[in-house]
Design brief:
CATH topology of the largest domain: Arc Repressor Mutant, subunit A
Structural class: mainly alpha
CATH architecture of the largest domain: Orthogonal Bundle
Shape: globular
Oligomer: single chain
Helix content: over 70%
Radius of gyration: 17 Å
CATH superfamily of the largest domain: Winged helix-like DNA-binding domain superfamily/Winged helix DNA-binding domain
Distance between the termini: 59 Å
Strand content: under 5%
Number of strands: 0
Largest sheet: none
C-alpha cells in the first residue's frame, strides 16, 4: 500500500514530467495542465490498487495523464474537431518544423482529416509513436495491448493516411 510520504515522493519525482505531458496535449494551457497534474495524482492516491506494477510508476502516471487530458478534450463542446486538430498540429510540428505557412495549413488539414477517419485508439497510438517518439514496445506496455496489435494499428493508420493523400491528389 502507498503511504502519504511515498506519494509525496512520487509527486516530487514525476510531477514535472506529468505537467509537460498535460501542457503539450492541452495546447500549452499551463493552468489547465496544472489542474490535470492534480487530478492525475489525486486519481493515483484514491485508486492505488489500480497500479498493478506491470509498468514503472512513472509510465503509469504518464498514461493516466494522457487519458485524463484526452478525456477533458473529448468532453468539450467541439471535442472531436479540437482533439484531432490539436493532434494533427503536434504530429506536423514533429515532422515538418520548417514548412512554409501555406503548406503547413494544407498539411494540418490533411492530418486532421486522417485522424478524423481513424478510431480514437489508433489515433492515440499514432500520437504516442509519431509525436512522443515511443517505440512499439513502449506503446504496448503503456496501452496494455500486444506489440503485434500496436504494429497492426500503426500500419492501419499509415494505410489510411496514404488513402487520404491519394484522394486529395485526384
Amino acid at each position: 500500500m502507498w503511504t502519504t510520504e511515498a506519494i509525496e515522493g512520487l509527486y516530487k519525482q514525476h510531477s514535472y514530467a506529468v505537467f509537460r505531458r498535460c501542457r503539450r496535449l492541452l495546447n500549452n494551457n499551463e493552468g489547465e495542465a496544472q489542474e490535470m497534474v492534480q487530478e492525475v495524482f489525486l486519481h493515483f492516491l484514491e485508486n492505488p490498487q489500480r497500479f498493478e506494477r506491470r509498468a514503472r510508476v512513472g509510465t503509469y502516471l504518464y498514461a493516466i495523464a494522457t487519458n485524463r487530458c484526452l478525456n477533458r478534450i473529448r468532453n468539450r463542446a467541439a471535442r472531436d474537431e479540437h482533439w484531432r486538430r490539436s493532434a494533427g498540429e503536434h504530429l506536423l510540428a514533429q515532422q515538418s518544423p520548417a514548412a512554409s505557412p501555406g503548406k503547413d495549413a494544407e498539411e494540418r488539414q490533411l492530418v486532421a482529416q486522417i485522424l478524423t477517419e481513424t478510431d480514437e485508439d489508433t489515433a492515440r497510438i499514432a500520437l504516442y509513436h509519431y509525436v512522443d517518439g515511443l517505440s512499439q514496445g513502449e506503446i504496448a506496455r503503456l496501452t496494455q495491448l500486444s506489440r503485434i496489435t500496436i504494429n497492426k494499428r500503426l500500419r492501419r493508420f499509415r494505410k489510411q493516411a496514404r488513402e487520404v493523400i491519394k484522394e486529395r491528389a485526384s
